[in-house]
């Protein structure tokens, strides 16, 4: 009797838990799903309220095709975004792996000063130094160039990624290095052949954060990229949504937002444990 | 012969070791150079520019603290700052009100927990600009979702433009930010919950403590550092809010939702008063640095533990 009671109470608890979980999941996913489904409506239908969200007058990719007809076209902005994000990933990984190794394994003058200097930049909001960054880029001849934007994005990633990489290298036992040194490995071969495979998860984590950071950044791109052919996706789509190219085409906005969201979602789903790992590292410290 | 080599080898390797340590400088050089050129120098320039009248074109001139005096009289900046703080308080409360229950919900590994956690977290990896563009469509009065749906369901007599007046516009932004950020805060709070030793909770149960008493006596104190971290991240992020107000509201209706960063952006890159914008930036910077110092104090290791 008591057994049956506790059984049914358990089932009731489980039911309540899963109903809550499913309702909450639907609320969080609905805006994303709603948008993605709506993009496949014909342009005419996309102008109407998305009720229901799926196409009712036929499947179409018109909204994606029209995206290319605004300004320099979505494809140019997408290319800019891809270039900026990939370069930010490559450069910030390179610079942070080198610096993380240096800070972890060598004792040189001003080591602690440099480390604190780099980490402390996280306290300063970059929003407050955008004007001088603009002037510095002009002085360097990088004004209104994607390369200039990459330099800024890499710098913004450094405190997090150097901190991550230094901890990753710190976790590698010194015996491994000493054994490799006995075998005659010099610093560079040691780093690439011996250390890198051991700190690989850290590299994936900082690469993921660098990509998401660069792909999604808006304010710096808005301020620093003045030429339409240099716009990244967020800047381009905001120009479109503000009616800069005539009447707002909401179908095109949905398609553009989908193009902006999907890479982030796929990367996150594929590399989730690296992402959570990065968050934890930030949260624990 | 053998004796000599034996004696000199350690000495040489010690000198070599000292020199080898200097190589470390080469490894960190690119990072230090980037931070110097794109962070330290701009930071110094902000301080210097704030003491100048600095138009985009033409010569700049030293004006001492005139820009700062002008800030004191700039009621629109103070309005923006007041709005920013108001937004920060409301949105932080809203985020915690959603994220904390979610963190408790997903804390223990049970069936489907990972699936729920991933679903709640998805909006957090979408950028603020994408999320703002998405919601600007959902909130649109003619082509969006909310107003037409409310009208179709008979909740409103006509389609209401949610973005036309302050209250609905403001709360729409709060809803959007909570949707986007709650999953992130949830994960941070979850790490705190998971770090609480299970036997502590069990001992309290044996002692007859109810769920609320346990929450107050065990969960909250032991989560102090995690709570502080989540709080500071939320507060700092909200004080620097820009994307959503620029993209969804353009600072409207009637400039009521201009945030501090938005006002600095307008002064610097719309009016091109670079010196004045720099002085405003210094004020913002001081606020954020103060916040970071509070953070360091809140996150200090509990005494006796390290």
In words, what does this structure look like?
The complex is a heterodimer of chains A (about 280) and B (about 300). With about 280 residues, chain A is mainly α. Chain A folds into two domains: about 1-65, no CATH class; about 70-250, MetI-like fold. Chain A has 14 helices and no strands. Chain A has helices at about 1-40, 45, 60-65, 75-105, 110-120, 130-140, 145-170, 175-180, 185-195, 200-215, 220-225, 235-240, 250-270, 270-285. Chain A is flat. In chain A, about 45% of the residues are buried. With about 300 residues, chain B is mainly alpha-helical. Chain B has a domain at about 80-260: Orthogonal Bundle (MetI-like fold). Helices cover about 75% and strands about 0% of the residues of chain B. In chain B, strands 1-2 form a two-stranded antiparallel ribbon. The radius of gyration of chain B is 27 Å and the shape is globular. Chain B starts with a helix and ends in an 8-residue tail after the last helix. Residues about 1-15 of chain B have low confidence and may be disordered. At the A-B interface, helix 1, helix 4, helix 5, helix 6 and helix 7 of A face helix 1, helix 4, helix 5, helix 6 and helix 7 of B.
Keywords:
heterodimer; A: 285 residues; mainly alpha; MetI-like fold; 0% strand; flat; B: mainly alpha; two-stranded antiparallel sheet; 13 helices
Total number of helices of chain B: 13
Tell me the radius of gyration of chain B.
27 Å
Provide the CATH superfamily of the domain at 80-258 in chain B.
MetI-like
What percent of the residues of chain B sit in helical stretches (DSSP H or I)?
over 70%
Shape of chain B: globular
User: C-alpha Rg of chain A, in Å?
Assistant: 24 Å
- Structural class, judged by helices and strands of chain B? mainly alpha
The CATH architecture designation of the domain at 80-258 in chain B is Orthogonal Bundle
């Amino acid at each position: 009797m008591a057994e049956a009671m506790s059984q049914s109470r358990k089932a009731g608890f489980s039911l309540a838990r899963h109903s809550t979980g499913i309702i909450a999941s639907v609320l969080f996913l609905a805006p994303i799903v709603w948008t993605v489904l709506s993009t496949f409506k014909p342009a005419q239908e996309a102008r109407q309220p998305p009720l229901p969200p799926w196409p009712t007058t036929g499947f179409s990719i018109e909204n994606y095709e029209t995206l290319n007809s605004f300004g320099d076209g979505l494809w140019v902005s997408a290319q800019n975004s891809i270039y900026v994000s990939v370069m930010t990933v490559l450069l910030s990984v390179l610079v942070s792996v080198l610096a993380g190794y240096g800070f972890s394994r060598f004792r040189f003058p001003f080591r602690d000063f440099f480390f604190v200097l780099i980490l402390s930049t996280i306290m300063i909001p970059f929003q407050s130094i955008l004007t001088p960054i603009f002037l510095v880029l002009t002085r360097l001849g990088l004004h209104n160039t994607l390369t200039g934007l990459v330099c800024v994005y890499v710098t913004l990633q450094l405190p997090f990624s150097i901190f991550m990489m230094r901890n990753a290298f710190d976790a590698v036992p010194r015996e491994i290095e000493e054994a490799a040194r006995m075998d005659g490995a010099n610093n560079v071969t040691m780093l690439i052949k011996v250390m890198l495979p051991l700190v690989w998860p850290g590299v994936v984590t900082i690469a993921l954060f660098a990509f998401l950071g660069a792909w999604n950044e808006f304010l710096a791109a808005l301020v620093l990229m003045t030429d339409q052919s240099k716009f990244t996706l967020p800047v381009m789509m905001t120009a479109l949504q503000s009616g800069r190219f005539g009447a707002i085409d909401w179908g095109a906005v949905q398609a553009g937002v989908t193009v902006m969201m999907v890479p982030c979602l796929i990367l996150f789903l594929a590399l989730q444990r690296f992402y959570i790992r990065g968050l934890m590292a930030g949260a624990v410290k | 012969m053998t004796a000599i080599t034996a004696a000199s080898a350690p000495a040489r390797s010690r000198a070599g070791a000292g020199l080898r340590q200097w190589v470390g400088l080469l490894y960190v050089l690119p990072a230090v150079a980037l931070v110097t050129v794109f962070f330290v120098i701009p930071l110094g320039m902000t301080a210097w520019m704030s003491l100048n009248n600095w138009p985009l074109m033409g010569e700049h001139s030293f004006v001492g603290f005139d820009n700062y005096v002008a800030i004191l009289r700039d009621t629109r900046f103070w309005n923006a700052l007041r709005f920013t703080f108001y937004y920060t308080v409301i949105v932080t409360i809203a985020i915690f009100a959603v994220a904390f229950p979610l963190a408790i919900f997903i804390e223990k590994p049970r069936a489907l927990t990972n699936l729920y956690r991933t679903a709640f977290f998805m909006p957090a990896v979408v950028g603020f600009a994408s999320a703002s563009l998405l919601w600007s469509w959902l909130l649109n009065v003619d082509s969006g979702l909310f107003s037409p749906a409310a009208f179709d369901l008979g909740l409103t007599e006509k389609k209401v433009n949610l973005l036309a007046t302050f209250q609905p516009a403001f709360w729409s932004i709060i809803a959007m930010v909570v949707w986007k950020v709650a999953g992130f805060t949830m994960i941070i709070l979850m790490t705190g919950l998971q770090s609480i030793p299970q036997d502590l909770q069990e001992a309290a149960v044996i002692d007859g403590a109810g769920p609320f008493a346990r929450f107050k006596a065990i969960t909250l104190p032991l989560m102090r550092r995690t709570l502080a971290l989540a709080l500071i991240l939320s507060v700092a992020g909200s004080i620097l809010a820009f994307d959503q107000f620029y993209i969804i509201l353009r600072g409207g209706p009637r400039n009521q939702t201009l945030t501090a960063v938005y006002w600095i952006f307008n002064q610097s890159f719309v009016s091109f008063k670079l010196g004045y914008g720099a002085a405003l930036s210094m004020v913002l910077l001081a606020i954020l640095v103060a916040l970071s110092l509070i953070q360091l104090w809140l996150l200090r290791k509990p005494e006796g533990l390290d």
